Automatic annotation (TrEMBL), chains A, D:
<dbReference type="InterPro" id="IPR019480">
    <property type="entry name" value="Dihydroorotate_DH_Fe-S-bd"/>
</dbReference>
<protein>
    <submittedName>
        <fullName>Dihydroorotate dehydrogenase electron transfer subunit</fullName>
    </submittedName>
</protein>
<dbReference type="Pfam" id="PF10418">
    <property type="entry name" value="DHODB_Fe-S_bind"/>
</dbReference>
<dbReference type="InterPro" id="IPR017927">
    <property type="entry name" value="FAD-bd_FR_type"/>
</dbReference>
<dbReference type="GO" id="GO:0016491">
    <property type="term" value="F:oxidoreductase activity"/>
</dbReference>
<dbReference type="InterPro" id="IPR037117">
    <property type="entry name" value="Dihydroorotate_DH_ele_sf"/>
</dbReference>
<dbReference type="InterPro" id="IPR050353">
    <property type="entry name" value="PyrK_electron_transfer"/>
</dbReference>
<dbReference type="InterPro" id="IPR039261">
    <property type="entry name" value="FNR_nucleotide-bd"/>
</dbReference>
<dbReference type="InterPro" id="IPR017938">
    <property type="entry name" value="Riboflavin_synthase-like_b-brl"/>
</dbReference>
Automatic annotation (TrEMBL), chains B, C:
<keyword id="KW-0665">Pyrimidine biosynthesis</keyword>
<feature type="binding site">
    <location>
        <position position="142"/>
    </location>
    <ligand>
        <name>substrate</name>
    </ligand>
</feature>
<feature type="active site" description="Nucleophile">
    <location>
        <position position="145"/>
    </location>
</feature>
<dbReference type="Pfam" id="PF01180">
    <property type="entry name" value="DHO_dh"/>
</dbReference>
<comment type="pathway">
    <text>Pyrimidine metabolism; UMP biosynthesis via de novo pathway.</text>
</comment>
<dbReference type="InterPro" id="IPR005720">
    <property type="entry name" value="Dihydroorotate_DH_cat"/>
</dbReference>
<dbReference type="InterPro" id="IPR050074">
    <property type="entry name" value="DHO_dehydrogenase"/>
</dbReference>
<feature type="binding site">
    <location>
        <position position="182"/>
    </location>
    <ligand>
        <name>FMN</name>
    </ligand>
</feature>
<comment type="function">
    <text>Catalyzes the conversion of dihydroorotate to orotate.</text>
</comment>
Length: 302, 321, 321, 302
């Protein structure tokens, strides 16, 4: 970290530190599907993958090859790890397009080719810090490991779990066993009618740190609310990834670094967990002039 | 004289195939390399591949200054391929020299450094900066960049512009570092470009770079990529890449070729070798299989052995005979 | 003005989308056609498709004399595509005029006749022979053929040769028959070819023809195809085809485009329309699904309706706006 | 047919007539796999495909889309029909490459997309003509329908069935129920050791017509033996096909027509059954000067 006082000032204004590197490198394995269970609109798959399970940390993800031997889909699909333990890893998959649909069709006994665990974990707060975890859609599943770890570290955990409709909620019971859970749905088909962010606003005063996983719009709203409340927040982003292992540079987001400068950072290896106040949500999909190296692209300071 | 002619064709051989090859005048233990932009600068592959055992790490094309690259979305998946528009994001030559190349050199991994620029002098300056750098085995000149001095026309699409770059690089580059020119398939006559750059002093040819493509998002009804068009890569383009290698080896049998474009398996690599490549790069397939570079090496070795070749060299260009 | 702008975007509409379009000046009820060489001369599709409901049957490129075509093997499957080297097997213009065109005309199917030759006069003679033939809606000029008068260089690779063919054809062709020039993607600058042929009188542009490719058989260790190289088609090439359509529509927004290259679904066809094509051909996908031409029509209609377009015409080139 | 006496002479020299067109056009259907059974090195699949079953005639084939929804394999795989009846069609598949391997992995209850019946049937001989049917490898399966039809038409049938090894034999029992069967294997692992053609030579004198299905080399030997014995023969060829329905021209063979002239004829729609004396086996893969239209390709008469 540089000693430049101007930079120090910017850094000081941020409430989060970048998530640390994972303790263990990923592995690539062909593993068996040990369990399959529809959960609302999603499918939960449990994989017999001891080497991944023992390495996995909350917030990390795995990447599946999809379509089988003759597949015309070349790129892996990234899926957040829901739970890891006892030699097994579970994931919750939403059938969005051809790749994820193929995944949801896997049956017990089928094998899948998976790489993981990938990416960085949610950083832990000081022991005992009350925490808020916020999940949208299948994103709630990715909070299970974190919530358990927070509990183990003495943090009381409040969970806000939302979705468009009741069938797109996820992991409510599992979270309920570890935390106090508030459910919201856009259409009121379960829990309170409204957005997770409405519920977040009512409880944010009670916690010392906020975590979120879900669609980008929700992450942005949650991060903004946390920052406005003076709380650190950590969000797990979902950005289109070609490789998942850091070699292709397709998955970048404008992220403010420890030195206060914004870089296009890879959400696969420098994320998917970022400090909520480090993601420049408004600039996603744009090239702001102050991103490192924007000048070389011909973008000039205004 | 191949083992085929001595009668062992089709029989498994017990002894090992000699897979050594050369990039220009520099010998490497394996003909299988990474492809520029598809393995970053090597470090991320370490969990999956022994970087010292592969031919070389071809680094992401570097320019003089650090570059942010283009805004996202930067990729679109396509049938058996993908489109990318990264915009050469990277640390610039200073960053490469201070961080990435020492990291590779410490481990004993060979770097084949891809350089890029928008004017001839940029390329020359990069070559100059890379003289004598430990672990730098040679240079790959990525001429698939827009030439700012020619209304943005890509260097590789014009034999004259392409050879200007190559001769400028060859003039200042470390004499011990072979210079490969990386050709674009998006030309009417790739042989004329290949001829021009070898005449200009290229020690070898890397081929092919991506094909220019476009995908429209049926939801937004706009091009998917921020950069509108992007580069098509992956198995989808393999027949085009093989055709380019075939044509150029046919016309210039003495020019060493680093073949690439859709290589996913040892049998794919074998096709490039038979067509005339003396080494190959594995690019997009790494995204599907992070250990692809090592696996392709092993599969190629087995495929050559099965076909009775005692060495890779015997197989280079065999399909033309 | 599109329905999108009037606010119905994203909502299913109950009324039908007007799918009529024109090839040059000739109106057709559907923008979905067969592709030359991928549906023979139509008869074989009859069990699967209502030939009168599709835009037109684009017939297999015909030459003056009957041709045997090349020896087998004539194809190789490739990832999400295939390579072919048929060599324009066909009955010649006499056979087409006596058998195939009357068969189509009897049924009320429209024929868009693809013509090919190896010298400019061949093309002109074919156009002459097709004047006033019942059911012949127009001509597609397949200039991706070697020009015997220019050391076998393909007409479509040279703007001058390409426009020579087109102006000769346009001069003698039936004025009621639009003349489309079929472009090759294997050029450095497809816009310059497109400009040359429209200047020479082409009423529209068919794009793209196949990309030149090669596959080597790992068992025989020789090129699979009898003709060594072949034409790459299918979904693998779709991003290249879309890029060509995009570039040409951008440069020549008034030139009607018959888009093709890897179209397999209505959403694929939609991409071509949004990029600037006013009609599309379905080629290789027919081999996978013999009813593809009719299915793509239906899927395209549904996709346009879902997006709030009242007519195909509103969607043409929409991605450029 | 032309009246030209020279042409008449050539035609007269041939012992076969081209196979007639099928009575019914093909259909395209997504059908269920109703049965699956390994037979030696092969897999027999039974499809619930009533519309194909009722149209099928002996010698015809079906074409399967392979690899599923995300498949990078674009071309259908042609597979001969073994039996057709009671609303079902059966086929015997050898796992040769990725497409046929995928087919052999289909399970009961899976659906497959199939087009058929395709191609022309084996023509029938005059009622009661003693017939020889010769099958190589999985090719024997394709003779089942024909053998039954011959029996129904009063023909005594002799079957010679061969393969490289015992596990590559096929349909021996089923043929045995309809005909007298001689089995040969190259390695002697079942039946007589030797080639089918050896066995054919010993029995050909007893029949009036010969039918064959199997590898090209075998078809050629059987056709030659029949022609030498003055007998008409019909062979079902296996040539690489891109479309199977006659639109692509990839599957051509040099075939002598009724007018005595050789054309590159499509084995999918003008075959796969051809008169054995009409296939110019020696010229497969070449372009002889006397093929119609060879002159336009620049091939000149010697
Ligand atoms: C870190 C991370 C964690 C994720 N966790 C989950 C999860 O737990 N459960 C789940 O169902 N999905 C998850 N996703 C999203 C999942 O990867 C995509 O839904 C899936 O890739 C869509 O693929 P497809 O073939 O079905 O869709 P297509 O639209 O056909 O995909 C085409 C391409 O776009 C990419 N893509 C499409 N949608 C997305 C998206 N929303 N995010 C990222 N890439 C996308 C695909 O990876 C693919 O390369 C996660 C994504 C990331 C990056
Ligand atoms: C009329 C006909 C009937 C057939 N009947 C049967 C049958 O009953 N049982 C059976 O197991 N196989 C049969 N075959 C062969 C079967 O179609 C091929 O084995 C299969 O297509 C191989 O596909 P693949 O993907 O496994 O191999 P690949 O080698 O990957 O195929 C690549 C391409 O080559 C073509 N091809 C490869 N081998 C052959 C071949 N031997 N014949 C024709 N095309 C080939 C494929 O169709 C495909 O387009 C028949 C072929 C034809 C033409
Ligand atoms: C994401 C991505 C980034 C790439 N970046 C570069 C680059 O920086 N320099 C370069 O010369 N080629 C680059 N390429 C092209 C590859 O090196 C290679 O030539 C091409 O992708 C074809 O090989 P493949 O099909 O094996 O990927 C890139 C390709 C991809 C997919
Ligand atoms: C087997 C085959 C034969 C073809 N024959 C012709 C032809 O005779 N004339 C022509 O202009 N294009 C021919 N083409 C090219 C197609 O018309 C089309 O331009 C190309 O295949 C791209 O479209 P697709 O990907 O939908 O097939 C042929 C393509 C194939 C696959
Ligand atoms: S997905 Fe490739 S670098 Fe992140
Ligand atoms: S396979 Fe297409 S014509 Fe026979």
């Amino acid at each position: 970290m540089t000693g430049d006082p101007a930079v120090m000032a910017i850094t000081a204004a941020l409430l989060t530190r970048p998530a640390p590197r994972a303790a263990h490198p990923p592995v690539q394995r062909v593993v068996e599907v040990a369990g399959r269970r529809p959960v609302g609109a999603y499918v939960e798959l449990t994989l017999a993958a001891p080497e991944i399970a023992e390495r996995a940390e909350p917030g990390q993800f795995v990447a599946f090859a999809v379509g089988g031997e003759t597949s015309g889909l070349l790129l892996r699909r990234s899926i957040a790890i829901a739970t890891a333990g006892d030699g097994e890893v579970s994931v919750v998959v939403s059938a969005a397009g051809p790749g994820s649909t193929w995944l949801t069709e896997r049956q017990v006994g089928d094998t899948v080719d998976v790489v993981g665990p990938l990416g960085r974990r949610y950083p832990m707060p000081p022991r005992g810090t009350p925490a808020l975890v916020v999940g949208g859609g299948y994103g709630s599943a990715a909070l299970l490991g974190l919530t358990a770890a927070l509990r183990d570290a003495g943090s009381p955990v409040l969970a806000v779990v939302g979705a468009a409709t009741a069938d797109r909620l996820c992991s409510v019971d599992e979270l309920g066993a570890l935390a106090e859970v508030v459910v919201t749905t856009d259409d009121g088909s379960a829990g309170r009618q409204g957005w997770v962010t409405d519920a977040v606003a009512t409880v944010i005063g009670q916690v010392g740190v906020v975590y979120a996983c879900g669609p980008m719009g929700m992450l942005r709203a949650v991060a903004d609310a946390a920052t406005a409340a003076g709380l650190p927040s950590y969000v797990a982003v979902e950005e289109s990834m070609a490789c998942g292992i850091g070699v292709c540079m397709t998955c970048v987001l404008p992220i403010v670094g420890e030195d206060g400068r914004t870089r296009f950072s890879r959400s696969c290896t420098e994320g998917p967990v970022f400090g909520g106040d480090r993601v420049r949500f408004a600039d996603v999909g744009a090239l702001p002039w102050d991103v490192v190296g924007a000048d070389a692209m011909g973008v000039v300071a205004p | 004289m191949t083992a085929t002619e001595t009668g062992v064709h089709g029989h498994k051989r017990r002894f090992e195939v000699d897979l050594r090859t050369a990039l220009g005048s520099v010998e490497v233990p394996s003909p299988v390399l990474t492809a520029s932009g598809c393995s970053a600068n090597g470090a991320e592959l370490e969990p999956f591949v022994d970087l010292t055992a592969i031919g070389a790490v071809v680094t992401k094309s570097v320019q003089l200054r650090p570059r942010s690259g283009r805004p996202t979305p930067r990729m679109a998946e396509t049938p058996s391929g993908m489109l990318n528009s990264i915009g050469l994001q990277g640390p610039g030559i200073d960053g490469l020299l201070s961080d990435d190349l020492p990291w590779l050199a410490e481990r004993g991994a060979r770097a084949f450094v891809s350089i890029a620029g928008t004017r001839v002098e940029d390329f020359a300056e990069l070559a100059q900066r890379l003289r004598g750098v430990p672990g730098v085995l040679g240079l790959e000149v990525n001429i698939s960049c827009p030439n700012v001095e020619s209304r943005g026309e890509v260097f590789a699409c014009d034999p004259v512009a392409a050879s200007d770059v190559v001769s400028a690089v060859r003039a200042v580059a470390d004499p011990a570092q072979p210079v490969y020119a990386k050709l674009s398939p998006d030309v009417t006559d790739i042989v004329s470009v290949a001829r021009a750059v070898t005449d200009a002093g290229a020690d070898g040819l890397s081929m092919i770079n991506t094909l220019l493509g476009l995908v429209i998002d049926p939801d937004t009804m706009r091009p998917v990529l921020g950069g509108v068009t992007g580069g098509l890569s992956g198995p989808a383009i393999r027949p085009v890449a093989l055709r380019c290698v075939w044509q150029v080896h046919q016309a210039l049998p003495e020019a060493p070729i680093l073949g690439m474009g859709g290589i996913r398996s040892g049998l794919d690599a074998l096709q490039f070798v038979l067509a005339g490549a003396s080494a190959v790069s594995v690019g997009t397939a790494v995204f599907n299989d992070p250990s692809a570079v090592a696996r392709v090496h092993d599969e190629l070795a087995a495929a050559l052995a099965q076909r009775g070749f005692a060495s890779l060299r015997e197989a280079v260009g065999y399909a033309h005979r």
